Hints:
Layout lengths: L18 E3 L2 E3 L7 E5 L3 H10 L5 E6 L24 H10 L3 H7 L3 E4 L4 E5 L2 E2 L8 E4 L2 H13 L4 E5 L1 E8 L6 E8 L9 E3 L2 E4 L7 H7 L7 E4 L4 E8 L10 E4 L8 E8 L3 E8 L9 H9 L5 H6 L3 E2 L4 E3 L4 E4 L11 E3 L5 E2 L7 H19 L6 H8 L1 H19 L8 H17 L3 H11 L11 H8 L26
Parallel strand pairs: 3-4, 3-13, 4-9, 6-16, 13-22
Antiparallel strand pairs: 1-2, 5-8, 6-7, 10-11, 11-12, 14-21, 15-18, 15-19, 15-20, 16-17, 17-18, 21-23
Amino acid sequence: MNQNQIQLVPESLMQDKPMAENGLSYHAGSGRRHALVIGSGIAGLTAARVLTDHFDRVTIVERDVLPEEPVYRKGVPQGNQIHAILLGGLRVLEQQFPGVTADLQAAGAVSVNLGSEARLYMLGRWRVRFPSAYTALAATRPLLEGTVRQRLAAHPRVTFVQGVEVTGICTNEAGTQATGVKLRGRGGEAGAVPQIEADLVVAATGRGSRVPEWLTELGFPAPRETVVDGKPGYATRVYRFSQPPAFDWKVMYLQPLAPDQRRGAILVKVEDDQWQASLIGMGGDYPPTDEEGFLEFARTLPAPDFVNIIQNAEPISQIRGYRRMENRRWHYEDLPHYLENFLVCGDAVYAFNPAYGQGMSVAAMASMKLDNCLRRQKGDLTGLAARFQKDLMSVIEAPWQLATGQDRDWQNEPGTSNGRMARLMQRYIRRVLEAMMHDATVAEAFLAVQQMLVSPVRLFYPDVLWRTLRPHGRAVAQPRVEASPRLNPASKSPL
């Protein structure tokens, strides 16, 4: 981190006196504006990067003391599990931080051709392998998040405040507008100041967000919640091979599929020649975290490849489980009125079952929606809260439907049945999944949708529709090559 990155709150953020910042001088009330972001996950980091284009100063407040090196941190309990940045999200990161893809690769992130170097087992068979136009990156969450954080920390307008906790939102006398945040040091550290003033506050506070409580304390309504809980659970361990493995792939995914196949697994190569191995259990069939139970669960998978491989590898970590992975959505778009100058984003609004790998990518793409909203406001923050929370739905809706479509089948509770159109859609998607296992054209189109590069409407194009609904039988395995996604730093659209 650069010299602006500090652990406790600096007095200069509190006092009405000049603050030297990389040769620039600021006064409270000088007309220069200050934005504050709560949380330094991908949602907070990408939102902060957008805010640097619109505000003179951006402060990121984080409960953890952030590590210099890529290591797992206490404030991210799911950080040890497998994470993915989809190509739609990686495109946004490259747009915001030009060269970050090369930085990740230099740090050890592994390139994976999603057609030829990824093995998928589903519906009782292995998917056809083919040269895809889409190549993704595989890396641990600490490497991905740490690389982005280091790039942002080098920005002259950005300050990180670490090791302090936000306890509420400050408002103006009328109680209609956010003016900053209330703080306390974690563990009651001496020297932590009580608040930081800001013109705009963005809460990227994760699944455990206390924003609804903060709003009700101020007299604002809390958003209603929608929960779709397929009761997923993970157990993950890291392995290393004493000799380079002979196989020619880098990802293996045995995918659970409702209603019958509750168990699955993922094996993925990441930095430092390590392999992350995760067992997945759906519908409350949670994988164990003890040695014997972990291997016994792996032996019950629908294909023996996973357990055969890990039994011949050296475990180099403990087995770590995580179960709080329900789909949960807070409907901020429906609030009857808003606290002005206060926005909510990331998992604090939409938390997906991470089995689908959407969370970080949706967060990055949502930051571009923030950029669009700020540009439309033209410097006036009045009405921004309502505009952003409503516009955010255009980013959330498609991945939410994809994530919850399967999980509703696992939920199997009264009152959760879908309407007729939703059931028809689910049946069609099931046919798409069946077709893509042997048809590379359908598989390539599904990859484009799954990687959030194109709209789900792509699955209804004639070439996919015909191949999906044709009578059963093997189709030609050669895909229609999609246009390779190009990263255009000048474009403001993530798609």
